[in-house]
């Protein structure tokens, strides 16, 4: 299979995917190395396709439905699953995490957590890696861009975050 054909099939798969697809999964499907797939993704991005890299694989940035807002939260590393659980049980997708570092400015990373499975996968990866969370750089304070469909879900999630002491600011970040 030629590279152009493989990249077209990768793009088609990403366009239909509801969950991230890993480079390893693509590599197995197309019987090539993972590095070839990483290169294909880089070429697709360079040609203008908005492909998001997450901890669980790649996603094509779709025209999303719903509203997005950024909120500030603060919690310990041990409470990350509790925070993510609040979001997903209120039908809220966690798009990314950001911190405002005193030296480097805004540092952000995509998360794309849309289910309890995603939340558990993220926390498991965190525990296995022994790495620090971005929020460790800012004493637990961090921002999330979240996507929601229903204002009532957002209000309920914010109330649950406030009850747990996670909501850093009552107001969304502009």
Automatic annotation (TrEMBL):
Domain of life: Bacteria
Record-given protein name: Transcriptional regulator
GO molecular function: metal ion binding
Keyword Mitochondrion assigned: no
Keywords: Metal-binding, Nickel
Family annotation (InterPro entries): 3H_dom_sf, 3H_domain, HTH_11, NadR, WH-like_DNA-bd_sf, WH_DNA-bd_sf
Domain 3H: 71-167
Positions annotated to bind Ni(2+): 75, 83, 142, 144
């Amino acid at each position: 299979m030629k590279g152009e054909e493989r990249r077209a099939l990768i793009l088609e798969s990403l366009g239909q995917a509801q969950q991230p697809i890993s480079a390893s999964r693509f590599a197995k499907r197309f019987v090539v190395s993972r590095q070839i797939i990483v290169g294909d993704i880089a070429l697709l991005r360079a040609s203008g396709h908005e492909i998001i890299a997450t901890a669980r694989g790649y996603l094509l940035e779709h025209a999303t439905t719903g509203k997005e807002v950024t909120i500030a939260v603060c919690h310990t590393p041990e409470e990350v699953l509790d925070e993510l659980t609040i979001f997903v049980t209120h039908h809220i997708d966690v798009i990314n995490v950001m911190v405002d570092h005193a030296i480097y400015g805004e540092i952000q990373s995509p998360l794309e957590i849309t289910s309890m499975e995603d939340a558990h996968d993220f926390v498991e990866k965190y525990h296995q890696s022994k790495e620090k969370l971005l929020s460790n750089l800012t004493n637990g304070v961090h921002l999330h861009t979240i996507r929601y469909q229903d204002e009532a879900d957002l209000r309920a999630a914010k109330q649950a975050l406030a009850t747990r002491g996670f909501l850093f600011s009552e107001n969304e970040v502009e």
